[in-house]
Design a protein that fits this description.
This protein is of the alpha+beta class. Helix content is about 35%, strand content about 15%.
Amino acid sequence: MTVLEHSIRFMLNGQRSTARVAADETLVEMLRDRFDLFGARESCGQGLCGCCTVLVDGRPVSACLTLAAFVDGAEIVTIEHLASGENLDPVQQAFIEAGAFQCGFCTPGFVLMTKALLDENADPRDDEIRHYLSGNLCRCGAYPEIMQAVKLAAEKRKANPPPIPSPACEGRLAWGVN
């Protein structure tokens, strides 16, 4: 290992993982190049479009701006982990039912942002939805359908609330890192 590389360990989609990363390697590069997870997409490279959104310790981050070394000890969730086998997450199902995508390039980022929004606010108003998703861009213009999908996902989650994770399952605590 050279001076410019770091060994990191983290939870990735529920699995303990390790990687040796370059000091300038971004999280999206690590996920795609080392773990073959292609849901997070680098588009703008400036954290302005939301295509590279992943959840780190439950919070959405722009993986194109986050250095991989900074997720040492964290829990990372990508779009690939939302479904449980053949059962889609209610947010994913709502996006399909509402037709909230056209080309699909931005969809993983919107889905993860919606999950994070609904984890914080189970019944958001329209203005809260627009504000929370304002960092995500849909170049196809599916915004009305995305709004509908968020509302539908909120209804689905009310009918079948997601389980509350135990503290022992949370990323930094699982590794004993504070």
